[in-house]
Amino acid sequence: MNKTTVSLSAAGLTMLMAGQLLPLIDFSIVNVALGSIAESLHATHIELELMVAVYGVGFAICLAMGGRLGDNYGRRRLFLVGVSVFGLASLGCGLSMTIESLLFARALQGIGAALIVPQILATIHVSLSGARHSFAIGFYGAIGGLAFVLGQVLGGWLVSADVAGLGWRSVFLINIPICIGVLIGTHFCVPETQSDYPVGVDWSGTFLLALALLCLLIPVALGPEYSWSWPFIVTLLCVIPLLFLLWKVEQVKERAGQAPLLPPHLLILPSIQFGLILAILFFACWSGFMFSVALTLQAGLGLSPLASGNAFIVLGMSYFFGSLNSAKVAGRIGNLNTLFLGCGIQMPGILVLIWTFYHYWPDISILSLVPGTILMGIGQSFIVGSFFRIGLSEVTTKDAGAGSAILTTVQQAAFGLGSALLGSIAYQVLSVTNSNRSAIVVALCAEFLLMLLVVLSALMFRSRLKRASV
Questions:
Q1: What does the pLDDT look like over 250-286, one tens digit per residue?
Q2: What per-residue confidence (pLDDT) applies to 53?
Q3: Cα-flanking dihedrals φ and ψ of residue 2, to 5°?
Q4: How many Cα atoms are found within 13 Å in the side-chain-facing hemisphere of 188?
Q5: Is 311 exposed, middle or buried (0-12, 13-18, 19+ CB in 10 A)?
Q6: Dihedral Cα 178, 285, 438, 317, nearest 10 deg
Q7: Which pLDDT tens digit goes with each residue over 3-53?
Q8: Which end of the chain is more exposed for a tag (fewer CB within 10 A), N or C?
Q9: Is residue 445 scored above 90 in pLDDT?
Q10: What is the Cα gyration radius of the chain?
C-alpha cells in the first residue's frame, strides 16, 4: 500500500536508471585507476584494498536502512538525498590529497549509494504493473550489469585521457554533472510514493547487520594479505553467531508488533531465500571475474588501462541487449527457466574463456576474448533479470522497500566478497606458480564451480515449488 498511487512515466524511469548508474559504476571504475592512485597518494596495497572495501561496506550496511527510510519519508525524497550525498562524496574523492581523506569520502559515497538504490526498485515495484513492470525490472537489471562493465571501460578511458590533467581524479569528478542532472530531472519526473504504515528505524537490527557484514567483508578483503592470522579467522567466525543473534532479535521485534529491519516473514519466503543464495553465488562470481580479468590484462599482459577497459565493451553490449529481451523470454518460458537458460549460455562462455587464456597466452587480444565474453554477457543478463523477478515474486507492495533492500544488500555484499575471493585465489596461484596464465585459468575454474552451485540451488528451488503446489 502507498499513500500515493501513481504510474511511473518513461521519463521518470529514465531518471531512476540514471541514478542507478552512479553507485554501480563506482564499484568497478576504480579497478583501472588503482595504479595511478597508489602513485599519486603513495598508497600501500592494503590501503588500496580498503578503498574498494569501505565503499562496499558502507553500501551494504546502509541499504536495508535506506529502504526503510524511503518507505517512511518518501522514496523520491530519499533518492534525492542519496544523490546529493553521493555527489558531495564524489567531489571529496576527486579533491582528496591523502589516502585517509579518500577512504573517508569513499565510505560516504557508499552511504549515499545505499540511500539511492532501494528507492529505485521499490518505486518500480509500487508504481508499475503487468508488462510495464516486467519491462522495467528487465531494464533495471540491464542498467545494473551495464554499469558494472561501463565502469571498467569509462575508468580506463578517463585515466588514459588525463582530462585537464586530472588523471585518476576524473573518475570521481565525472559524477558531479550527472548528479546535478539527475536531481533536476527527478524533481519533475518521478512521483513520490511511501508506505501507508510508517515505522521507526530498527537501530539494533542495523547495528547487528553492520557488525556481521564487517566481520565478513574485512577478513575476506585483508585476510590473505596477513596470511590469515588468528584475528582474521576469529573475526570471520563471528559472522555465524552475529547472524543468529540478528535473526532472534528480528523475531522478537516482529512478535511484539514492531517493524524489524529484516522482517522474518520475508526471510522465510522461498523466493527470498533462493534469491539470497543466488545473490551470494552469482554476484560473487561476477565481480570476481571482472576484477581478476582486469588485473590479469594489466599486470599479466601489460595492457594499458584503456585497452583493459575496452576488453569488456563486447560483454557490456551483449549484456545490455540480452537484458532488454529477458522480459520477453521470461514471459514465454517462465522466470526459473530463463534462469536455467542464462546459466546454460554463461557457463560455456566461462569454458571458452578458460580455453582462450590457456591456449593463446600470451598472445591474447581483445578480439580473441569476444566469443567467450558474448556468451557471458547474454547469459548474465538472463540470470540478473530472473534474480529480481523471482526474488520479489512473493513480496507485497507494503514490503517493497524491505524486500528490495534485503536482496540488494546481499547483492552488494557479494560484489565486495567476489573480488576478494577470486582475486585471492588468483594471487595464491600466482605466488606458487609465478604464472599469470595459471592464475586466471584457476580463478575462472573456481567461478565455473560456483555457477554449478547456482544450477544445483535452482533445481532444488524448482523441486520445492513443485512440492508446495502439490
A1: 899 888 877 787 888 888 888 888 988 998 899 888 8
A2: 72
A3: -140, 145
A4: 5
A5: buried
A6: -50
A7: 445 677 778 888 888 888 888 888 778 777 776 787 788 877 667 767 777
A8: C
A9: yes
A10: 21
| Contact by Cβ (8 Å): 186, 22 | no
Residue 97 CB: number of other CB atoms within 10 A? Answer: 9
> What count of Cα atoms within 13 Å lies in the side-chain half-sphere of residue 78?
28
| Location of C-alpha cell 536502512 | 65
The three-state DSSP-derived secondary structure of the chain is: CECCCCCCCHHHHHHHHHHHHHHHHHHHHHHHCHHHHHHHHCCCHHHHHHHHHHHHHHHHHHHHHHHHHHHHHCHHHHHHHHHHHHHHHHHHHHHCCCHHHHHHHHHHHHHHHHHHHHHHHHHHHHHCCHHHHHHHHHHHHHHHHHHHHHHHHHHHHHHHHCHHHCHHHHHHHCHHHHHHHHHHHHHHHCCCCCECCCCCCCHHHHHHHHHHHHHHHHHHHHCHHHCCCHHHHHHHHCHHHHHHHHHHHHHHHHHCCCCCCCCHHHHCCHHHHHHHHHHHHHHHHHHHHHHHHHHHHHHHCCCCHHHHHHCCHHHHHHHHHHHHHHHHHHHHHCHHHHHHHHHHHHHHHHHHHHHHHHHHCCCCCCHHHHHHHHHHHHHHHHHHHHHHHHHCCCCCHHHHHHHHHHHHHHHHHHHHHHHHHHHHHHHHHHHHHCCHHHHHHHHHHHHHHHHHHHHHHHHHHHHHHHHHHC
CA distance 135 to 324: 8
Nearest CA-CA partner of 440 in 340, 323, 290: 290
361-364 contact pairs (CB < 8 A, 24+): 361/436, 361/437, 362/300, 362/301, 362/437, 364/297, 364/301
170 sits in the region (left: phi over 0; alpha: psi -120 to 50; else beta) called alpha
d(CA 314, CA 293): 14
Task: Please say whether the dihedral angle defined by the alpha carbons of residues 194, 198, 203 and 209, taken in this order, is positive or negative.
Answer: negative
pLDDT of res. 32: 74
Look up cell 590529497; give the residue: 97
The C-alpha cell at 263 is 522482517
Rounded to two decimals, the pTM is 0.80
Largest alpha-carbon pair distance within the chain? 66
d(CA 144, CA 348): 23
